[in-house]
């Protein structure tokens, strides 16, 4: 996998993300892809292509539902948390590892829009449940619209689990990474998996689960250590919340939340911070372990922000990555540079090749990868045909000369006439060579440079 850039935090005063602003970003990505796909290796465009397709597909589905995936290592308590959230005990929990082999899902509120989303995600109908009945009263109002997914483990001895998790993580709106005090510093964090996963996403939360197993005095140390690991892995913006799927989090409510920051944008306002920046658990029903996570999720679900912000963040990331390919204005190089080189080459193949290469080098001066290569390739595409084409061009220029033999005869006796006819010959040769240069080298190079410039214009 290519090295991922760190996520660019969203400015607090940035304009709100809307469906049309997301559509506009998709259009930009598509315009860039259209302009350059013939010239750039497809792997360089893969992220942009998949991001824009996924965003389009997601926009077509319910925007009043937010998909939230519980992901992480085996035994961290994903299924236990899923059951605690849903109060349904539908996802089997076990001491055997790994337990969950396929995703489970629960929809809060309107089932229909949620069903289409679950079809898109590929969750089996028999593993889908619905929460929020009349019995709940208003307790579940804050989560209305949430589609919670319990995923298989990511560190599985079963390779199929990892593939399924990766597929789903690519599609969901919010990821809650569930870890526990024994495993929080494990390889999945260290080898950069988490960093790569979180780097491109808007909605990402880390839950330190099973904190009920810790002494109240140990919790701040463990949470602080995990916070440091996250910060060191460029995940300083990711909120961290202490949870327990089965019991209470030790210590006063909210005390175990180590420097959570906003993943979901909150409008800056006067007074104490609310929403995702405050995880006190106040005012939300249930055991404190789940309350704290709920308090992070509710504003994202109720405000319908997570879906669009995730897409917006993804697309910004894709555009940012594309942007690296378009630093610098393409130089305007006169074709005469090439024509003069070809005339000077006098039909010698090596010299013809170096004039073409020189023209390509000048045309790509200052452009980032992969453009110098793309331009060089375009310039050389018809190189093997060029010597013969130039020879014919020379013959055409001379043929005109032969047809006006009287001028040559005059030139032999009158120097002024001779000079003029030499100039005419040179002009005709240049013009014939110019045509060949245009067809064989300049045109193909121009097509690449136009793609580059069109993409650059779309980006700006
Ligand atoms: N004390 C305590 N035990 C927990 C907690 N969460 C889960 N457990 C226990 O940890 C074990 C594993 O829980 P699961 O919910 O199956 O874990 P999982 O992450 O779904 O595991 P996989 O499906 O294998 O990926 C079970 O024995 C749970 O009872 C918690 O918060 N506190
Ligand atoms: Mg499980």
UniProtKB/TrEMBL annotation:
UniProt key word Transmembrane helix: no
SUPFAM superfamilies with a match to the protein in the record: P-loop containing nucleoside triphosphate hydrolases
G domain boundaries: 67-186
GO biological process: ribosomal small subunit assembly
UniProt cross-references to InterPro entries, sorted A to Z: GTP-bd, GTPase_Era-like, P-loop_NTPase
Source superkingdom: Bacteria
A GO MF term: ribosomal small subunit binding
Gene3D superfamilies found in the cross-reference section: P-loop containing nucleotide triphosphate hydrolases (3.40.50.300)
A single Gene Ontology CC term: cytosol
Keywords of the record: ATP-binding, Nucleotide-binding
Protein known as: Energy-coupling factor transporter ATP-binding protein EcfA2
Species of the source: Allocatelliglobosispora scoriae
């Amino acid at each position: 996998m290519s090295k991922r850039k760190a996520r660019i935090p969203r400015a607090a005063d940035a304009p709100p993300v809307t469906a049309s602003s997301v559509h506009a970003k998709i259009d930009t990505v598509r315009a860039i892809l259209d302009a350059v796909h013939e010239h750039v290796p497809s792997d360089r465009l893969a992220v942009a292509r998949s991001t824009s397709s996924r965003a389009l597909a997601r926009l077509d589905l319910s925007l009043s539902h937010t998909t939230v995936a519980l992901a992480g290592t085996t035994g961290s308590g994903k299924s236990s948390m899923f059951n605690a959230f849903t109060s349904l005990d539908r996802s089997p929990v076990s001491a055997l590892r790994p337990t969950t082999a396929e995703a489970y899902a629960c929809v809060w509120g309107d089932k229909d829009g949620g069903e289409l989303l679950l079809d898109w995600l590929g969750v089996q109908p028999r593993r889908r449940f619905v929460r929020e009945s009349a019995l709940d009263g208003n307790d579940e109002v804050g989560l209305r619209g949430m589609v919670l997914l319990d995923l298989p483990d990511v560190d599985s001895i079963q390779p199929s689990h990892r593939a399924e998790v990766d597929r789903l993580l690519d599609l969901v709106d919010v990821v809650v990474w569930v870890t526990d005090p024994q495993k929080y510093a494990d390889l999945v964090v260290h080898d950069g998996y988490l960093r790569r996963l979180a780097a491109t996403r808007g909605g990402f939360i880390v839950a330190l689960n099973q904190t009920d197993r810790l002494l109240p005095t140990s919790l701040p140390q463990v949470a602080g250590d995990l916070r440091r690991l996250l910060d060191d892995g460029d995940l300083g913006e990711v909120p961290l919340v202490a949870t327990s799927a089965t019991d209470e989090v030790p210590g006063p409510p909210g005390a175990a939340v180590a420097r959570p920051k906003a993943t979901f944008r909150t409008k800056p306002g006067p007074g104490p911070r609310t929403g995702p920046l405050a995880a006190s658990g106040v005012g939300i029903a249930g055991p404190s372990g789940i309350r704290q996570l709920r308090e992070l999720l509710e504003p994202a679900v109720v405000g319908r922000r997570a879906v669009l912000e995730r897409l917006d963040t993804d697309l910004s990331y894709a555009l940012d990555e594309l942007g690296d390919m378009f630093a610098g204005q393409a130089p305007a190089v006169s074709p005469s540079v090439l024509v003069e080189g070809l005339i000077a080459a006098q039909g010698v193949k090596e010299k013809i090749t170096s004039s073409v290469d020189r023209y390509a080098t000048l045309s790509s001066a200052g452009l980032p990868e992969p453009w110098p290569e793309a331009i060089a390739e375009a310039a050389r595409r018809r190189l093997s045909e060029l010597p013969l084409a130039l020879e014919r061009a020379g013959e055409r220029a001379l043929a005109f000369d032969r047809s006006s033999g009287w001028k040559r005869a005059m030139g032999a006796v009158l120097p002024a006439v001779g000079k003029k006819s030499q100039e005419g010959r040179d002009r005709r040769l240049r013009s014939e060579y110019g045509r060949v240069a245009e067809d064989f080298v300049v045109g193909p190079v121009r097509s690449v440079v136009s793609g580059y410039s069109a993409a650059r214009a779309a980006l700006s």
